[in-house]
Amino acid sequence: LKTGLRKTHTQIVHGLDEFFISKQDKATREEALETLFELLVQADVGVKTSEYLVDKVKSRIQKEDYSDAKIFKNILREEIFNILTATRENPKGTLENPLQSLADKKLPHVVVIVGVNGVGKTTTTGKLAFKSHLRGQKVVIGAADTFRAAAVEQLAVWAQRSKADMIRLKEGSDPASVAFETVKKASENNASICLIDTAGRLQNRQDLMQELAKIGRVIAKENPDAPHEVLLVLDATTGQNALQQARVFKEVVNITGLVLTKLDGTAKGGIAIAIAAELGVPIRYIGVGESVEDLEVFEAHEFVNALFS
Ligand code: GDP
């Protein structure tokens, strides 16, 4: 995670350090807060959340402490941590411990993965499958993005790696049929986890809403508790666009968690803070590279540690 956030760390924390050094311990309150605001906005924390953080810091720092970089950074760190942990929890349990949290419920744990094309949805589905496989769980994958043959092929490779069964129907089939077959197969095979990769065409909000709603209805027919998770995948490198996508998806479907991909190699990691502050949906995983092990469970304290150390 530390390497994944290096550029964002440089943008915010290194930027603050440079400011305080250049002021040789004589920074004024106005200068310090203005610099903080600019650095946060440049790291894609967004104007609204940056203003919120600046206000919080302002209300907690004594005037004479504005020249102390350490006090300043500690308070900022605490406030960022507070934002990242204030998000609501998913009552149906998390993907990390489905067997434990769903001990008295009907398996499989059904996860629907949504997001715009190109954000890393297929890769994330594959990485999740592999994680489950390593935990010794049986996985069934549903290739419900029936419009992109290449995406289905890519998913098949991931499925093979994870020894997972994969349900695919012919190109252009109803995505809800794929979802239904996937949950059915998972129940029949006593699989623990069912991952359904959906299509992400945002051009027509109405179509997307109908498609995702239908997938939800059809799955619930097979298992009334499902879906247990709806994970929205967002590409961190797109900064404020990711936030905009999240707003749209939140309108059409009940998102239970977020996956923020491509945090490696971007200075826009501040988007994680903006998304948590504005949407109140917990970030569950972060993607920090293209290979199978590059998906990490999101932990707020690790995130701030990596950002500030
Ligand atoms: P989809 O269209 O949303 O299914 O996106 P894909 O899963 O096909 O991913 C699009 C591209 O992003 C691929 O080249 C992936 O290897 C890459 N990708 C996905 N997640 C990450 C990540 O966390 N870090 C990096 N650097 N690349 C990623």
UniProtKB/TrEMBL annotation:
UniProt entry keywords in alphabetical sequence: Cell membrane, Cytoplasm, GTP-binding, Hydrolase, Membrane, Nucleotide-binding, Receptor
Compartments reported by the entry:
Cell membrane; Cytoplasm
Q: Which Pfam families match?
A: SRP54, SRP54_N
Q: Which residues bind GTP?
A: 115-122, 197-201, 261-264
The protein's GO terms of the molecular function aspect are: GTP binding; GTPase activity; signal recognition particle binding
A biological process (GO) of this protein is: SRP-dependent cotranslational protein targeting to membrane
Stated EC number for the protein is: 3.6.5.4
Catalyzed reaction equations:
GTP + H2O = GDP + phosphate + H(+)
Q: Which GO terms describe its cellular component?
A: cytoplasm; plasma membrane
Q: How does it sit in the membrane?
A: Peripheral membrane protein
**Which segments constitute the SRP54-type proteins GTP-binding domain?**
282-295
What's the subunit arrangement here? Part of the signal recognition particle protein translocation system, which is composed of SRP and FtsY.
Provide the family line: Belongs to the GTP-binding SRP family. FtsY subfamily.
Q: What does this protein do?
A: Involved in targeting and insertion of nascent membrane proteins into the cytoplasmic membrane. Acts as a receptor for the complex formed by the signal recognition particle (SRP) and the ribosome-nascent chain (RNC).
By what name is this protein known? Answer: Signal recognition particle receptor FtsY
Q: Which organism is it from?
A: Silvanigrella aquatica
Q: What is the lineage of its organism?
A: Bacteria, Pseudomonadati, Bdellovibrionota, Oligoflexia, Silvanigrellales
Name of the gene this protein is made from = ftsY
